[in-house]
Structure prediction request, 200 residues.
Amino acid sequence: MKQKLRAAVLWSILLVASSAFAQADEARAKKIAGGSCFLCHGAQGESTSEIFPRLAGQHAEYITKQLTAFKNGQRKSTAMSEMVAKLTPDEMVALGKYYEKMSIPREDPKDPQLAAVGRYIFYNGNKFSGVPACVSCHGANAEGAANLPRLATQFSGYIHTQLKSFNKRERTNDNAVMHVVAEKMTELEMAAVAEYVSGK
Prediction:
């Protein structure tokens, strides 16, 4: 009986400590985000320019992975390498969790006809050029998985730019599969897929 009581007390202490650490991490992430991240990514991770990705709702693991890649030079960006230079691994994880909790409203595609082409490619690929269906990795709602980006509600211009970077092999920090996929895509296909998933 005493052992069960001790175990229950210990478990309660661990829960309280875990909650305290989580609150401290979130407070730290909020401070970091408010100090520098918001300049490009918006106060709520919404971003106001297609040059900068929306972080709201993005998978925490994916954000952590990208921040790490910027810091160690696997992903190139003069601006981001300076921003992450002093971040610790724990702070990167905290920022990922901080932005993952946020959300932004879905917006309809600006070009419905282009999005319709993108929808077909997203679900079916292009059997003539060998482009596989995006849905096989990124999921039916373009929400990806923990280690893959959430594409839904992301700026179409940003996604298009990243696809071109994969196509030219200028972006090398992520899954090599993206090089194989993007190098087979035409400019129209990249723009169409980007337009479609931005409205998911």
